[in-house]
């Protein structure tokens, strides 16, 4: 099993206990749901991953390695999944994460949903989770939810809920109301006028893409840092990433007006020039040179298309290397972190 699949499952457990409760607005269970059709209309951020297309990406491998090194508890949960469940990455096609509105002062702390689609079997997943949480004080309970089953997994002070939206789609989260809402017939993200507009601005065919509403404090911070040249910060960010043969990145800031888009473009280009000079000290000047910034109506696009040598050089610098061609990892994708 690749550790990427384990990360997805472990992240759902990791958020348990941290998400805040919110009332469900659904008025009954929907028909089968998957993907965007399972994302509640109140969501603030949506992230989609085509698992099979990013499975062998050196950049993804490196990110997973860093995450496991920085979080021993997460690494331990991955080992448990690997040893006990024998889950296979080939059985997971797509993963979508949705973050709901945050009730407190910190952006991104709302209820989190993980929507995984693939060759999944409900009885096998339930047995897997039961084996993970049933060895100590935890356990797995099942309760009817219309024609579906809601599972509650407890592991110490962590709680995770999951249910199947259709035969090949499991919906997981630390907030029961959020999971129930995802399964419900209430409004979903495609019914939200703002997100409908933003979703049309992102490449949903990319291996990784995301759309997110920008927090008001971030918007005001941009106005301040530009000394008022930007009169209103971006309402949303749209991102697409293709790490399959390097790193092709496109980030769009959705501004309030074409004038604000032009002002942000000018400000960002000035900052990029300064960054380029600093990057020379790390041998990253050529990489910074590949970053392009352009305003298109009310959107400011930041893009970069890095080949594998450039990606390996960047990874080398992030790992503390000098960034030279000699210190960069090999460009054949074998960067020393193959899945088990």
3D architecture notes:
The chain folds into 2 domains: 3-188, no CATH class; 193-306, no CATH class. Residues 4-27 and 323-340 have low confidence and may be disordered. The protein contains 11 helices and 12 strands. The chain starts with a helix and ends in a 22-residue tail after the last helix. The protein is an alpha+beta fold. A 12-stranded antiparallel β-sheet has the order 4-5-6-7-3-2-1-8-9-10-12-11, with helices on both faces.
Quick one: overall form?
globular
Domains (count): 2
Strand tally:
12
Counting H and I runs of at least 4 residues, what is the number of helices? 11
Strand content: 15-25%
Kindly report how far apart the N and C termini lie: 6 Å
Please give the order of strands in the largest beta sheet: 4-5-6-7-3-2-1-8-9-10-12-11
């Amino acid at each position: 099993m690749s550790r990427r699949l384990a990360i997805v499952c472990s992240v759902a457990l990791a958020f348990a206990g941290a998400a805040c409760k919110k009332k469900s607005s659904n008025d009954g269970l929907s028909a089968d749901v998957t993907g965007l059709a399972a994302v509640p209309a109140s969501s603030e951020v949506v992230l989609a991953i085509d698992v099979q297309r990013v499975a062998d990406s050196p950049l993804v491998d490196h990110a997973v390695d860093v995450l496991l090194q920085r979080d021993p508890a997460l690494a331990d949960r991955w080992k448990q999944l690997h040893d006990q469940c024998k889950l296979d990455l080939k059985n997971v096609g797509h993963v979508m994460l949705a973050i709901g509105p945050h009730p407190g002062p910190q952006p991104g702390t709302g209820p989190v949903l993980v929507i995984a689609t693939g060759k999944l079997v409900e009885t096998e997943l339930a047995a897997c989770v039961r084996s993970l949480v049933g060895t100590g004080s935890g356990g797995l309970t099942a309760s009817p939810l219309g024609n579906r089953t809601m599972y509650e997994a407890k592991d110490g002070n962590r709680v995770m809920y999951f249910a199947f939206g259709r035969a090949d789609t499991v919906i997981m989260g630390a907030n029961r109301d959020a999971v129930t809402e995802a399964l419900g017939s209430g409004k979903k993200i495609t019914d939200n006028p703002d997100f409908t507009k933003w979703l049309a601005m992102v490449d949903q065919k990319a291996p990784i893409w995301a759309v997110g509403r920008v927090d008001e404090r971030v918007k005001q911070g941009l106005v301040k840092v530009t000394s008022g040249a930007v009169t209103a910060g971006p309402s949303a960010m749209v991102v697409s990433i293709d790490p399959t043969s390097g790193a092709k990145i496109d980030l769009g800031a959705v501004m309030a007006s074409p004038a604000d888009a032009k002002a942000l473009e000018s400000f960002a280009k000035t900052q990029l020039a300064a960054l380029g000079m600093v990057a020379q000290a790390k041998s990253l000047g050529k990489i910074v040179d590949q970053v392009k910034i352009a305003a298109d109506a009310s959107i400011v696009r930041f893009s970069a298309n890095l080949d594998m040598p450039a990606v390996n050089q960047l990874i080398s610098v992030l790992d503390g290397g000098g960034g030279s061609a000699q210190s960069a990892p090999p460009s054949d994708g074998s960067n020393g972190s193959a899945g088990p």
